[in-house]
Design goal:
Layout: E1 2-5, E2 10-11, E3 28-32, E4 43-45, H1 48-55, H2 64-73, E5 79-83, E6 88-89, E7 92-96, E8 106-111, E9 122-128, E10 137-143, E11 148-155, H3 160-163, E12 170-174, E13 190-193, E14 198-199, H4 204-215, E15 222-224, H5 228-231, H6 234-251, E16 255-259, H7 267-281, E17 288-292, E18 295-298, E19 308-311, H8 314-328, E20 337-338, E21 344-345, H9 351-360, E22 362-368, E23 372-375, H10 389-406, H11 416-435, H12 444-447, E24 448-451, E25 466-472, E26 481-487, E27 493-497
Parallel strand pairs: 3-5, 3-15, 15-16, 16-17, 17-22
Antiparallel strand pairs: 1-2, 1-11, 4-5, 6-14, 7-8, 8-12, 9-10, 9-13, 10-11, 18-19, 18-21, 20-23, 22-23, 24-25, 25-26, 26-27
Length: about 500
């Protein structure tokens, strides 16, 4: 299949999807409204070109593409994207051809995904009774309103519909409606136009469903929903934030990056909003970090008088966290790091306002002379803002590694051999973290402890349950973090933070 955005032509070769890498902690997941793409289906993208191909380009009515660009320009490598959408219809049209060579008397040509993006899409179908192979064949040219063009040539009648399944723009399905009389003489090319596509902004239920779907992706370690606060308001917005925080807290292996809502951008209102979130969740928000203010970025759709636009910062910050994760490890604080693909801050704060925001647990983005735009803070929302993102990210990495180590053991017979294997596997994970400098102490026994013996697995305990207790001391000063690893009956594995 070949596809192009005029005036050039790009050849695309389909590769099998890569295997999931659940040990990685640098991959972000985004819940966003997009111009096109499958609704509620997680799609793995590895760059801006990949995102645009799947979900469409820039749209002045949405922050999505600008935020995703910020993620990749700040050196995020891979992202999972889930499109959130309200009620939507798919653009299409009927093609009555009148050819005996085709298996169905008529077909329905529809866009690959719902929304109004495919309205006015032009499809040109040309039929040759004797093609280069000496047999009947079709050429199909599809031109989208945004200028993207696809060509399919030499498709045999029997495989016409199947051949278009690799198209990123259209699908062909049999239509049972009335047949069309055969064309007189040589058939002229059919010129068809799609229409009827509609789309509505997503509501609370769309975000809740998308969040649940994204929660099932093992690779996702950073979660963001740029633009959500500009779509949902009031109780719906609070409910969506609460659902994301609850889901993140239960997962124990990912960080939720939140923006301050646009109507709460002033320093005092931003502080009140964060305090309200903290009050609703207490320790449940320890895996949540808030970044403020929004950023100003160059707008490829802008005009000479308005070449820039403000966008939520979460996409850019997620890219910074992803980059530093690969460069230094998740246990290093994502602070004092330069932000790329932004030209200014959306809101300027006085020094006393910055101090107020910092004390409340809001991570500031700052512009300082000689350094440009930087991420200045690295605190989680939980408790009183005294929890560091680096500590939480270290726990996320350990939880992922421990799960990977323990999962193969869930169906083993409970006994000394299983407990010893579990201790050895977990210890190897913690030794690796100690050697990379993630844990404190001069010796491993000062950095972590692993206990899985008869003291926490007494003979009278349910034989279908194995308990492994883990205590870890991060490299920067902090109390020991305690985890309980539970292997239960029927292959159930749980990691609980004590």
């Amino acid at each position: 299949m070949t596809a192009a955005a005029l005036p050039g032509l790009t050849v695309e070769i389909g590769n099998p999807p890569p295997d999931a890498e659940p040990l990685r902690t640098d991959i972000a997941g985004f819940l966003v409204p997009t111009h096109k793409g499958p609704v509620g289906v997680p799609v793995r993208v590895d760059g801006m070109t990949s995102f645009i191909r799947a979900f469409g380009g820039f749209d002045q009515q949405a922050d999505t593409a600008y935020a995703i660009r910020g993620y990749f320009e700040n050196e995020g490598q891979v992202a999972w994207v889930v499109r959130v959408s309200g009620p939507a219809a798919t653009a299409g049209t009927r093609w009555g051809h009148g050819l005996a060579a085709l298996p169905a008397p008529a077909y329905r040509i529809v866009a690959t995904s719902p929304g109004d993006w495919a309205n006015e899409m032009a499809v040109r179908i040309e039929y040759r009774q004797r093609g280069l192979t000496g047999r009947p064949e079709f050429d199909v040219r599809t031109s989208a309103p945004d200028g993207t063009v696809e060509y399919f040539t030499g498709l045999a009648p029997a495989v016409l519909a199947a051949g278009l399944t690799i198209s990123s723009m259209i699908r062909l399905t049999a239509d049972d409606g009335p047949a069309v009389p055969p064309p007189a003489g040589r058939p002229r090319p059919w010129q068809l136009t799609l229409g009827g596509g509609t789309g509505e902004p997503p509501g609370l239920e769309a975000y809740l469903a998308a969040a649940e779907t994204l929660g099932d992706q093992d690779e996702v370690a950073i979660v963001a929903a740029p633009g959500m606060h500009g779509i949902l308001t009031g109780a719906d917005r609070d409910d969506a934030v609460d659902a994301l925080i609850t889901q993140t807290g239960l997962a124990l292996d990912r960080l939720l990056v939140l923006d301050v809502p646009p109507d709460e951008a002033a320093a005092g209102r931003a502080v009140a909003w964060v305090q309200a979130v903290r009050a609703r969740h207490v320790d449940g928000a320890r895996d949540v970090a808030v970044y403020h203010p929004p950023l100003v970025v160059l707008d490829p759709l802008g005009t000479a008088s308005r070449p820039v636009r403000p966008v939520p910062a979460s996409g850019h910050v997620a890219g910074v966290i992803s980059r530093l994760d690969r460069e230094r490890g998740p246990h290093h604080s994502p602070a004092n790091a330069v932000l790329a693909e932004a030209v200014d801050l959306g809101v300027a704060f006085a020094a006393d306002e910055e101090a107020l925001l910092y004390r409340s647990g809001v991570n500031l983005l700052r512009c300082t002379r000689g350094h440009g735009l930087q991420v200045w803070g690295s605190r989680a929302v939980g408790r009183d803002g005294s929890i560091f993102v680096a500590h939480r990210r270290l726990i996320h990495q350990l939880v992922r590694a421990v799960r990977t180590t323990a999962t193969p053991l869930v169906f083993d017979v409970n006994g000394p051999e299983l407990r010893l294997a579990l201790v050895r596997g977990v210890t190897s994970v913690l030794l690796q973290a100690f050697r990379t400098g993630a844990l404190q102490g001069d010796r491993p026994d000062e950095a972590f402890r692993v206990r899985c013996d008869e003291t926490n697995n007494p003979p009278e305990q349910d034989p279908g349950l194995v308990v492994c207790e883990i205590a870890v001391a991060p490299a920067t000063p902090m109390e020991f973090v305690r985890l309980r690893l539970l292997l239960g009956a029927e292959g159930r594995l749980e990691v609980i933070e004590a």
